[in-house]
Amino acid sequence: MSRAQGVALSGGVAAAAAGLTLPAARSAPCSVPLRPAAEVVARATARAAHGPLILISRSGALRALAQLRAALPGVSVHYAVKACAENPLLAALAEAGCGFELASAGELPALAGVDVAPERLLCGNPVRAAAQTDALHAAGVRLFAVDSAEEVARTARAAPGARLLLRVAVPGVPSAEGRGAAPDAGPVSPSAAGSDAMAEPAWWPMRDTFGAAPEDVAAIVAAASDHQMDIAGACFHVGSQCTEPAAWVRGAHAAAAALQAARAAGHSANVLSLGGGFPVVLEGTCGPLTAGGTADHGDASPPAGPTGETPTVEAIGTALAPALAALPTGVQLLAEPGRYIVASAGVLLTRVTATRSHRGARWLQLDCGLHNGLIESARGLPYRIRPLRGSGARVVWRIAGPSCDGADVLPGEWLLPAGTAEGDWLAIDGAAAYAQSRASRFNGLPLPVTRVVD
Ligand SMILES: Cc1ncc(COP(=O)(O)O)c(C=O)c1O
Fold first, then answer.
1. Is 344 domain-assigned?
2. Phi, psi of 333 (to 5 degrees)
3. Closest by alpha carbon to 205, among 226, 228, 227, 179?
4. pLDDT per residue as tens digits for the range 79-131
5. Mutate to test the pocket of ligand 1, among 65, 77, 82 (most ligand atoms within 8 A of CB)
6. What are the tens digits of pLDDT across the range 428-454?
7. In angstroms, rounded to a whole number, what is the distance separating the alpha carbons of residues 168 and 215?
8. Integer Cα distance of 15 and 168 in angstroms
9. Is 42 part of a structural domain of the chain?
10. Taking CB atoms and a 6 Å cutoff, what residues make up the pocket around ligand 1?
């Protein structure tokens, strides 16, 4: 940016043999149509230095963008930079007409040299330090999410003249048979405890943290009026890797109600952002095995995530269409996808650093783990792991990351070739989004290197 203001940012595997069960939706062979081609992966791994490697296919990302646009006609896409802030990826998306969703001013340097006008930027983080709002405002950002009267006041002070997107909570539906109960033990979560437990539609939930409840919308609208800030529209986020199309429909209805309340108070309220959450569809038999029937190798069970098949963006678009058609004419629709674009078009490549037998189980240690790229495994995100070289019949492995942290273990058990050995590369599909941006150098271990390839 910035043209307008010149701001200087510029398999059919032997699972059955082991008495193990595979998730029902994961029985098709691996298909990775948007990810970098095998030759590109082979070239990149041949000359890779130490540490994990993330390859994002530029053409794959643009095809994912095109799929999303076709599924959601008329929706203006604002890519969520947090999912992968690689400058060449952002440049390609901007050239294809994308705007960007930012969480903080710290993401602005990633847009250096990218040809995007500030009008195509928005800040979707609804609770910010004033200094962040101030820096984003100074860079030309004029659209900020809020979900409380307090944030309206903070934004009014730090970003006078900016416009607001009122973020609403996505209503839940009661959990059936405990589905959606907290996957992990820990502090009691109101939505997960007791009889009012809500089904969780996303692998990476947001419902408990962000979004105004219906009863709070009036106070936020009133605060905006008091501070003479226009509510430009409403937004929501169903949670990341959301597998329930109806969640977007519930979000759209809640946002439409907020638009109506804001319009009644004299605000322009003519934007509706559908947020992110669009799920990458991963197929194949190379996902984690379910725990049923396994030997006692300790707690290998993946945390419980949403159940059922992963919907396509087309299915989400179809489910949403009636709710969007019922909006008042002239409402501008936005979406803020991150994962769908990057995880569909990317692959995380990691090397086996050690193999060992331990308490009756075979273990692989990888150079990428919970702390340096695979933090989303903590929620049991359903990655798919493919060996880059076949080496015999498949057997059950447990997989650990490179740190000496006992939590640095991929949930579940994995069917990989019996001959898997030190130095072998594994490709992890579904892991490219958020891997680089969330990685740390815990234990002094290398961060992933991300390359945008053709
Ligand atoms: C406000 C907002 N928009 C968009 C996204 C992108 O979500 P996803 O990567 O699931 O599409 C996020 C993710 O945290 C977000 O917080």
1. no
2. -100, 135
3. 179
4. 999 999 999 999 999 999 999 999 999 999 999 999 999 999 999 999 999 99
5. 82
6. 999 999 999 999 999 999 999 999 998
7. 10
8. 43
9. no
10. 80, 82-83, 101, 124, 237, 240, 275-278, 336-340
Point out the least confidently predicted range of 261-270, 304-313, 407-416: 304-313
16-67 pLDDT tens trace: 333 333 333 333 334 447 999 999 999 999 999 889 999 999 999 999 999 9
Report the atom number in ligand 1 closest to the C-alpha of 124: 1
Percent of the chain at pLDDT > 90 equals 74
Which residue's C-alpha comes closest to atom 1 of ligand 1? 124
**Are residues 368 and 436 in contact, defined by beta-carbon separation less than 8 angstroms?**
no
User: Is pLDDT above 60 for 266?
Assistant: yes
Residue range 257-262: average pLDDT?
Answer: 98
Per-residue pLDDT, 176: 64
Q: Are 217 and 259 in contact (CB under 8 A)?
A: no
Given a contact cutoff of 8 angstroms between Cβ atoms, the answer to whether 287 and 383 are in contact is yes
Instruction: Give the position of tokens 């189980």.
Output: 361
**Distance (Å, rounded) from C-alpha 155 to C-alpha 167?**
14
Top-confidence residue, 293 or 233: 233
Domain that holds residue 191: 59-338
Residue of 240, 334, 340, 438 best suited for mutating to test ligand 1, as the one with most atoms within 8 Å of CB: 240
The predicted pLDDT at position 429 comes to 92
Find the CATH number of the domain harbouring 91. Answer: 3.20.20.10
Q: How far apart are CA 416 and CA 361, in angstroms?
A: 13
Chain mean pLDDT for the chain: 86
Asked if residue 434 belongs to a domain, the reply is: no
The secondary structure of 87-138 as a DSSP string is HHHHHHHHHTT-EEEESSGGGGGGGTT----GGGEEE--SS--HHHHHHHHH
Q: Are the C-beta atoms of 258 and 212 separated by less than 8 Å?
A: yes
Instruction: Using the predicted structure, report yes or no on whether residue 183 has a pLDDT greater than 50.
Output: no
Residue 411 in any domain: the answer is no
Distance 206 CA to ligand 1 centre (A): 9
| Structure-block tokens of residue 366 | 């990888």
Domain count, the chain: 1
Closest atom of ligand 1 relative to the 167 alpha carbon = 1
pLDDT at residue 199, rounded to an integer: 82
Cα(238) to centroid of ligand 1, in Å?
A: 9
Indicate if the pLDDT at residue 382 is higher than 80. no
